[in-house]
Design brief:
Radius of gyration: 25 Å
Structural class: alpha/beta
Number of domains: 2
CATH architecture of the largest domain: Alpha-Beta Barrel
Low-confidence stretches: 1-31, 35-42
Number of helices: 10
CATH superfamily of the largest domain: Glycosidases
CATH topology of the largest domain: TIM Barrel
Order of helices and strands: EHEHHHEHEHEHEHEHEHEEEEEEEEE
């Protein structure tokens, strides 16, 4: 058989250096609108055309769950999950004195990790407020600390031009007008309460007004736990009037601006080829808690990086959470995870910038694709089963092939594999990938072609001189 030399071999990978620097909720949230059957989502999500468009440029952020629950260090829902009475839980306020809290240090870590914005819990389900709220005494000003946490963080963010987003829980285990009925993420009815949803909404609106008025510009409002499923667009309208550049999520009183798939609960969002609306996934470095847990188990770098890549490669945003200690320090284990992920993201970041997502460009399970002009990026999002990958239906050799993780050239070839004997179609193969050396990360290949991408996957004429694999 006549042989056609289509083989292109790069430098051997034997000398490739190791990446030496690498070492929620019970009920899932409302599902994000996904587009699992679309041909592709390469056109991207439509922008707002106003100040909220910052969200499209700053796609990776730090989530912080912090409050009284960090003192016992078990879970952010300590009161509910630990069956702690309200009378006992509120005593934690007498211990709230996070003297080591330094917002500059938080922002230093955020930036080192490659994150572009920060979202902090102003009030979690326990009702304790991290700002000087005039609507309740259950706040940071009535503690030994006696400082306005939100004011301190907002000042630091404004100085460094870091977008600040504020989390706010609708469910409230302390405010006497909130109708705790024992539903999910609620206390059983409390004898000392006066349940009144209308009065509670007035309380809530005034707290939202404080947050949107007293701390300068904010860039996002992150609702959580609308247990009654109450609808009232006027509340988000108030936020938009007071903070026109703030994006609002879909867990509040209307559909908001973006969806919020959480951890790995939403399989449809995790596996969809694209999204029909703006999306921000969220995950924590800790496996058990979003708040600080003293003996926490942590996700592997590989699991978190795969999750981040899976959403960023599909035109979505991502929030990765840490839980500071009761003293205000982000634990070293959590900080080290963020730093390692930051090094990975810095090495591959071009595959997320100014690109379109088009994972139907190749027919390979577990692989995502982003593209720009004549360049495609192959994201080996799921753990590769071998050190080579066949990129059907691409049958054109790239002019240049680079592994972004370490900058090394990729050994690649276009030839016929035995498994494709029936069609006699040769395909592009990436070979000798360092999947062992870089096993705790996601490999991303940059393939640059000297012809339009529309032409790299056209079927070839059946021949008898097809180059066989070597």
């Amino acid at each position: 058989m006549k042989r056609r030399d289509l083989l292109k071999t790069a430098a051997a990978f034997a000398a490739t250096p190791l990446f030496s620097s690498w070492a929620g909720a019970i009920n899932p949230p409302e599902q994000t609108n996904t587009n699992p059957d679309s041909v592709n989502n390469s056109v991207g999500i439509k922008r707002f055309g106003d100040g909220r468009d910052w969200f499209f440029e700053n796609r990776y952020g730090m989530f912080v769950h912090w409050g009284l629950y960090s003192i016992p260090g078990w879970h952010e829902q300590h009161q509910w999950r630990g069956r702690v009475t309200r009378n006992e839980y509120v005593k934690l306020a007498k211990q709230w004195n996070p003297v080591k809290f330094n917002p500059e240090q938080w922002l230093d870590l955020m930036e080192e990790a490659g994150m572009k914005y920060i979202t902090l819990t102003t009030k979690h389900h326990d009702g304790f407020c991290l700002w000087d709220s005039k609507q309740t005494q259950f706040n940071t000003m009535n503690t030994p600390y006696n400082k306005d946490i939100i004011g301190m963080l907002s000042d630091a963010c404004h100085k460094r031009k870091v977008p600040l987003c504020l989390y706010y829980s609708i469910a409230d285990w302390n405010q006497p007008n909130y109708p705790n009925q024992g539903r999910h993420h609620e206390l059983p009815p409390q004898p000392q309460d006066s349940p009144d949803w209308i009065k509670y909404l007035e309380f809530l609106k005034e707290q939202v007004r404080e947050l949107c008025t007293n701390y300068g510009e904010i860039h996002g409002f992150w609702w959580d736990m609308n247990v009654p499923l109450h609808k009232d667009p006027s509340i988000n309208n108030m936020i938009r009037k007071l903070q026109p550049n703030a994006v609002i999520n879909n867990r509040g009183f209307d559909e908001g601006d973006f969806g919020t798939p959480e951890r790995d609960y939403d399989n449809a969002a995790a596996e969809a080829k694209g999204f029909d609306r703006l999306t921000e996934a969220c995950q924590s470095v800790g496996m058990e808690s979003w708040g600080y847990k003293k003996d926490e188990d942590f996700y592997t770098d590989r699991h978190l990086i795969s999750s981040i890549d899976r959403y960023l490669a599909r035109d979505a945003n991502y929030l990765l959470n840490v839980g500071p200690t009761g003293e205000g320090i982000i634990p070293k284990e959590a900080a080290d995870i963020l730093k390692r992920i930051g090094k990975w993201k810095k090495s591959v970041d071009e595959c997320y910038q100014g690109v379109q997502t088009d994972s139907n460009l190749v027919n390979v399970p577990g692989v995502l694709v982003t593209k720009r002009e004549h360049t495609i990026y192959i994201h080996l999002n799921k753990v590769p089963v071998g050190n080579g990958i066949k990129l059907k239906p691409i049958n054109v050799l790239p002019a240049k092939a680079t592994l972004l993780n370490n900058g090394m050239p990729i050994d690649c070839a276009v030839n016929l594999c035995p498994s494709d004997h029936a069609s006699q179609q040769p395909y592009l193969r990436l070979r000798n990938l360092p999947i062992g050396e870089l096993a705790n990360t996601v490999l991303i290949a940059k393939l640059e072609f000297d012809q339009p991408l529309e032409e790299i996957g056209k079927p070839t004429k059946l021949e008898t001189d097809v180059e066989l694999t070597k």
